């Protein structure tokens, strides 16, 4: 029996006993139809997240009678954590199409987070590197447990608020090789208490989710994972008070790229109502070809198994051996969705070039200093520009940045523009041209003492989730900015438009009127201030 089978057997047994105790303790609950999804017995305060659910824990019943038993936080928000949506992708299931988790009618304990998807630790290293740069003790950010068996999702909902409520399905970032679905900034309680059902989801990472071996039956396993999670949410979110017709998919960094790829994938059908795309623009400029990715997969096979290796034999290699050799084999190749007839018939770059994007409702943005924290000793402007921009254009670009700019500022401006900012604006143009309703932002707020990383990659996340870590210096202006951003996000989730009563006006982006909102100490709408810089980078 696999480790998750043992853990889930325990959780199912505990859940079944708790469900029976709950029925005995709560008169009238046993009369609820077992095949009718819905809230069964919210009860009083439940155990803290991470502990076994108590008798009075919140419960829902899914189709087929499966009872899911969660926990309730101190603010009264129902949390259903570590819900399996797929069979463990291990052993013979490694690199195969994800198989739905069967709903057998047995009760399931959803009182604690599941392990994060197996990785080298790069997600935690991101936090520690950022914290060290601003003088914060990295020990304040602890690692989750990791496992190859990791296809779970988490749901936050407030059962006291009437539904059906809009749904936010959030996809974490981490370069498709790190991160996890319950990083502290992603906990959905604050948004749930404002009338949204929040779902965060895991997907296979690194070589487990994005390897492209010639003998694999599917491409883009990680994208298939997300599509299956979306299918689960569409089918079952009504039981948690959510509206399956109002699912917005959101993500940051690689999560934003995955959210948009999911919206473009035939695997999603018509299940997505809108997209929030935070700092994930680089696929507009292209990525590895399927052949390049296949070559790396064969290099991996050769390194681990020699000339007699095969995909089936790779399935028998330990996960830790795969993790150990991946950085060397995949050096310089970004993990992500590849062109594939089933899951992504046209890449984002191809769709933009061919003017074949759908008319999406979408919020798109980036941060002022996305690249600052990634600058390494020895980096030079020439290294950033070479192979991307013809050399004759370099002087004009550097003049635009300014002769008095420091080398750090130049590198940040170039890296931010080339990878995040300018492709995001190109995407906004392309979507608007196709009839999409597009709203663009730039996030500029720099916290006190954070000058060394500025408005860093991911800086907006604590604001849009209303989840400021204790170690983040948070002032009144940050609370005010949180209220503004959350207000816009809620309006978009409810109505597909971030504007609403009491909120600053956020004009739609149009090719002939490229308006954006700059979020900072004082936020304002204006023609995007970086249009000239991006025109220089693109040669327009």
Characterize this entry briefly:
With 540 residues, the chain is α/β, with parallel strands linked by helices. It has 16 helices and 17 strands. It has helices spanning 3-25, 122-133, 189-192, 206-210, 221-236, 254-264, 290-305, 311-314, 319-329, 348-354, 381-385, 394-401, 407-433, 461-464, 476-495, 531-538, and strands at residues 38-39, 59-61, 67-69, 71-72, 78-84, 108-109, 116-117, 146-147, 152-157, 165-171, 197-201, 242-252, 274-278, 361-367, 437-443, 515-519, 524-527.
Task: Write the topology of this structure.
Layout lengths: L2 H23 L12 E2 L19 E3 L5 E3 L1 E2 L5 E7 L23 E2 L6 E2 L4 H12 L12 E2 L4 E6 L7 E7 L17 H4 L4 E5 L4 H5 L10 H16 L5 E11 L1 H11 L9 E5 L11 H16 L5 H4 L4 H11 L18 H7 L6 E7 L13 H5 L8 H8 L5 H27 L3 E7 L17 H4 L11 H20 L19 E5 L4 E4 L3 H8 L2
Parallel strand pairs: 3-6, 7-8, 10-11, 10-12, 12-13, 13-14, 14-15, 15-16
Antiparallel strand pairs: 1-2, 2-3, 4-5, 5-9, 9-11, 16-17
Helix pairs in contact: 7-9, 13-16
């Amino acid at each position: 029996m696999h480790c998750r089978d043992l853990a889930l057997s325990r959780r199912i047994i505990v859940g079944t006993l708790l469900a029976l105790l709950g029925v005995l303790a709560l008169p009238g609950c046993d009369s609820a139809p077992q095949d009718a999804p819905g809230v069964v017995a919210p009860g009083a305060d439940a155990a803290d997240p991470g502990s076994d659910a108590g008798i009075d824990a919140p419960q829902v019943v899914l189709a087929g009678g499966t009872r899911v038993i969660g926990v309730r936080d101190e603010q009264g928000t129902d949390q259903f954590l570590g819900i399996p949506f797929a069979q463990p992708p291990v052993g013979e299931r490694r690199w195969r199409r994800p198989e739905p988790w069967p709903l057998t009618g047995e009760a399931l304990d959803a009182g604690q987070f599941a392990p994060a998807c197996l990785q080298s630790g790069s997600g935690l290293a991101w936090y520690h590197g950022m914290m060290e740069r601003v003088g914060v003790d990295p020990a304040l950010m602890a690692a989750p447990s990791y496992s190859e068996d990791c296809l779970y999702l988490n749901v936050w909902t407030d059962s006291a608020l009437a539904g059906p409520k809009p749904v936010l399905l959030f996809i974490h970032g981490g370069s498709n090789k790190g991160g996890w679905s319950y990083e502290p900034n992603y906990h959905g309680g604050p948004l749930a208490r404002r009338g949204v059902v929040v779902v965060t989801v895991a997907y296979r990472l690194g070589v487990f989710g994005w390897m492209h071996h010639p003998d694999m039956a599917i491409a883009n396993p990680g994208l298939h994972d997300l599509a299956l999670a979306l299918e689960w949410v569409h089918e079952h979110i009504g039981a948690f008070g959510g509206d399956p017709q109002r699912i917005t998919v959101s993500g940051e960094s690689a999560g934003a790229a995955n959210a948009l790829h999911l919206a473009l994938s035939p695997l999603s059908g018509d299940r997505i109502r809108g997209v929030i795309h935070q700092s994930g623009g680089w696929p507009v400029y292209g990525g590895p070809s399927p052949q390049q990715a296949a070559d790396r997969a064969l290099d991996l096979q050769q390194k681990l198994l020699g000339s007699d290796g095969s995909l089936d034999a790779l399935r028998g290699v330990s996960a830790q051996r795969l993790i150990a050799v991946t950085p060397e084999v995949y050096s310089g190749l970004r993990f992500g969705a590849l062109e594939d007839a089933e899951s992504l018939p046209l890449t984002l770059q191809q769709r933009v070039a061919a003017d074949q994007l759908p008319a999406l409702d979408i919020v798109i943005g980036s941060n002022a200093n996305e690249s600052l924290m990634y600058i390494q000793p020895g980096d030079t402007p020439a290294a950033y520009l070479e192979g991307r921009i013809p050399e004759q254009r370099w002087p004009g670009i550097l003049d635009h940045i300014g002769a008095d700019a420091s080398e750090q500022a130049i590198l940040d401006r170039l890296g931010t523009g080339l990878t995040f900012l300018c492709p995001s604006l190109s995407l906004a143009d392309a979507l608007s041209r196709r009839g999409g309703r597009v709203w663009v932002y730039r996030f500029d707020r720099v916290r006190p003492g954070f000058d060394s990383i500025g408005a860093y990659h991911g800086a907006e996340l604590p604001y849009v989730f209303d989840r400021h870590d204790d170690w983040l210096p948070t002032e009144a202006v940050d609370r005010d900015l949180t209220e503004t951003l959350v207000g816009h996000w809620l309006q978009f989730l409810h109505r597909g438009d971030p504007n609403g009563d009491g909120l600053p006006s956020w004009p739609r982006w149009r090719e002939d009127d490229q308006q954006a909102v700059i979020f900072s100490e004082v936020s304002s709408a204006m023609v995007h201030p970086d249009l000239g810089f991006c025109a220089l980078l693109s040669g327009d």
